[in-house]
Amino acid sequence: MRSVMSKAIFWFRNDLRIADNPGLFQAYKQHSEVFCVYILDKPLANITRTAQSWWLHQSLTTLKKTININMFVGDAEEVLLELCRKHDITAVYWNRCYEPLHIARDTHIKQQLHKINVQAKSANGSLLNEPWEVLNKQGEFFKVFTPYWKQCLQQIVCPAPFIINDYSKFAKLPSLCLEELNLLPTWQQQFTNYWQPGEAGAEQKLQDFLAYKLEHYKEGRNYPASNFTSNLSPHLHFGELSPWHIFRTVREFQINYPAQEANTMHFLSELGWREFSYYLLYHFPKLTSANFKAQFDNFPWHDNDEAFTRWKRGKTGFPIIDAGMRELWVTGTMHNRVRMIVASFLVKDLFIDWRRGAQWFDETLLDADMASNYASWQWVAGSGADAAPYFRIFNPILQGEKFDSQGDYVKKWVPEVAHLPNKFIHKPWEAPTKPLNYYEPMVNHDIARKKALSYYQALRMS
DNA sequence: TGAAATGTTGGGGCG
DNA sequence: ACGCCCCAACATTTC
Hints:
With 462 residues, the chain is an alpha/beta fold. The chain has a five-stranded parallel β-sheet, sandwiched between helices. The chain has helices spanning 22-30, 51-66, 76-87, 100-115, 145-155, 191-194, 199-213, 217-220, 233-237, 243-256, 261-283, 305-313, 319-331, 336-348, 354-364, 370-381, 396-403, 408-413, 445-461, and strands spanning 7-12, 33-41, 70-74, 89-95, 119-123. It is 47% helix and 7% strand. Helix 3 packs parallel to helix 4 (100-115) and helix 15 runs antiparallel to helix 16.
């Protein structure tokens, strides 16, 4: 099928980059003409009306400036089959997705393409290790992170970067313009103040991280008012840079600065948690709906819409919680430490089902990633693989005092408490004069904690 | 990647 | 000088 004059399709999905893109590179190497397509796949298009639809629009806009991308809306299978028939395509290339519905769709499309004598070639463009290639000595999948990641580090084979420097093969087709995908931002226009979607923005973030942040990473990453996290996650989600590129770059940094080993290894292990999440989703496809630990099936979740709304809107009366939820709404992200605190609060102070929290994050996070999001919620809830034990309950006041001792983070997002002395900034209800325009704490944390522990005790008995 | 409850130790005030 | 108490500081256990 390697004819000199053959035409191929490269199907862009969550790999919106040119550099180090194995599927795109193979199509480019083996064919004389390549049609890049992006399909807003109607049966799976759960991205519209979320924060990510804004990012997708921006990212595609940027990518289109470099190479021709042909836009389509519809059923991916129908779109691809029709294009193949119309334009005498010999092969379709893509990089693999790992969400259960995507796997099913792609497998099916592969079969349909074969039926009309079109090759379908998938590559790994998103993960350092394929989920099915990392198994323990019993031949089962790992359920604990540390041995999993140790094994990964041993078996990672880092390919040389795939480089394309001639874009003339990427041809145009009759197709929609980007605006016709209707990827309109649904609420905030402020994302643009915080983010630069696209490959260049991603590379910039990576370089900034190496230059200014990595040397403080292990400790600094815990403090939401400081700026020592990479903020690469939305770029990674959309595949604007490859995990190998990060891996190679960070490894090289480590060779140049051996004293930075603790920081570099810690950062790489965060990449490892991303891998582990995909891995868990692959081996436990019900991750988004079912407790990994089945005993949580009997947890008496509270179906409290009013409490849920207060949490979503940042009106709980706990400054660190409200700061996080407001940061999320405005910027499309939330500092990782604060994500753990707000998630713990939803599950263990309000007793609201972790699935509802995860769904809200799906809608509002620019980096929302089915695997990482749901694996992390189950981790916090205690129902997940290698999860935090349920009795590890975050105290929102103490966490605030520990990790935002000067209240800098809280003041930025909760101006109602900004005038209070530090002593009261994480518990304004104890201040001699309470702020007038702020909320009463919606629960008593000490009581909620005891209740959580009793629920948990009951689970263990049942 | 927790925090409360409980246990232990040792210095200092004081009769 | 001694025993007693208090309690801060740290360690361990428990959820």
